[in-house]
C-alpha cells in the first residue's frame, strides 16, 4: 500500500519509463534468441545442453507457454547448470526451422551435442525445471568428457576416434543422406496412401449412392398393416 501511495508522487516521465521497461522485458523474455548464424555454434560448440522452443508469435499455445519458458530461462541461463534455454522464431528463421523438422508450434527440442530429441514432458514451469535438473544438467558425453559416457556410448565414441577427420566427415554425410532418403521414402508412401484413400473414398461414395437408389422408393411404400395402424 505504501509503495502504491509513493508511486503517485513519481514524475510522469519516470512512470512511463518504468512501464515501458516492464513491457519490453516481458516481450523480450529470458530465453536466448538463436538465429541461423548462431544456432549450430550454440548447439554443437557451447559444451552445454540446449533446450530450444521453436515458435511463432501468433501461436496461441506458444503465448500460453511463454511465461513458464521465460521463467525457466531466467532461472537457468547464466546460472550454474550447464544448460542454455533458447528461442527460435520460426516466422523469422524459416529455413532453420524447416531444416530441423519443425512442423507445428511450439516444437520443443533438447540438444546434447547431437541432432536433437523432441521434448514430450509437461510445459508448466515445474515440469520444465525438473527436466532440466534431472536430465539436461548431467555432463555431456563427448571426447573431452568420457567420464560422462555410458559403456555403450564410450565404445562407439572411441571407435570413431580411431578414424581420420575426413573419414568421420564422410560418414556423417553418408548417414545424413541415408536419413533424408528414408524420410523421403516415408513421405512418398504417405502421398501414395493419401491418393489411395481419396480414390477409395470417391469409389465408395459412388457405389453407396448406386446401391442406395431403390431405398427412397422402398421406404415410401406402406403395406396394409401399416395403413391400418395409422388409421
UniProtKB/TrEMBL annotation:
Family: Belongs to the protein disulfide isomerase family.
Species: Diacronema lutheri (Unicellular marine alga)
Protein's recorded name: Thioredoxin domain-containing protein
Gene3D superfamilies per record: Glutaredoxin
Superkingdom to which the source organism belongs: Eukaryota
Lineage: Eukaryota, Haptista, Haptophyta, Pavlovophyceae, Pavlovales
PANTHER family from the UniProt entry: PROTEIN DISULFIDE-ISOMERASE C17H9.14C-RELATED, THIOREDOXIN DOMAIN-CONTAINING PROTEIN 5
Record keywords: Coiled coil, Repeat, Signal
MF (Gene Ontology): protein disulfide isomerase activity
The Thioredoxin domain, residue ranges: 9-137
Amino acid at each position: 500500500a505504501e509503495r502504491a501511495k509513493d508511486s503517485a508522487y513519481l514524475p510522469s516521465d519516470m512512470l512511463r519509463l518504468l512501464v515501458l521497461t516492464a513491457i519490453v522485458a516481458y516481450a523480450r523474455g529470458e530465453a536466448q534468441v538463436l538465429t541461423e548464424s548462431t544456432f549450430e555454434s550454440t548447439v554443437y560448440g557451447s559444451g552445454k545442453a540446449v533446450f530450444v522452443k521453436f515458435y511463432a508469435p501468433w501461436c496461441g499455445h506458444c503465448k500460453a507457454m511463454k511465461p513458464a519458458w521465460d521463467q525457466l530461462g531466467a532461472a537457468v541461463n547464466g546460472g550454474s547448470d550447464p544448460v542454455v534455454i533458447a528461442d527460435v522464431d520460426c516466422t523469422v528463421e524459416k529455413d532453420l526451422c524447416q531444416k530441423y523438422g519443425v512442423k507445428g508450434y511450439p516444437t520443443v527440442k533438447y540438444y546434447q551435442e547431437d541432432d536433437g530429441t523432441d521434448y514430450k514432458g509437461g510445459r508448466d514451469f515445474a515440469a520444465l525445471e525438473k527436466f532440466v535438473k534431472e536430465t539436461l544438467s548431467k555432463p555431456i558425453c563427448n571426447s573431452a568428457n568420457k567420464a560422462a559416457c555410458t559403456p555403450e556410448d564410450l565404445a562407439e565414441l572411441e571407435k570413431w576416434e580411431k578414424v581420420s577427420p575426413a573419414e568421420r566427415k564422410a560418414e556423417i554425410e553418408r548417414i545424413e543422406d541415408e536419413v533424408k532418403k528414408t524420410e523421403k521414402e516415408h513421405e512418398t508412401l504417405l502421398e501414395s496412401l493419401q491418393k489411395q484413400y481419396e480414390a477409395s473414398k470417391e469409389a465408395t461414395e459412388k457405389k453407396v449412392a448406386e446401391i442406395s437408389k431403390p431405398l427412397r422408393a422402398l421406404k415410401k411404400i406402406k403395406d396394409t398393416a401399416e395403413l391400418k395402424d395409422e388409421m
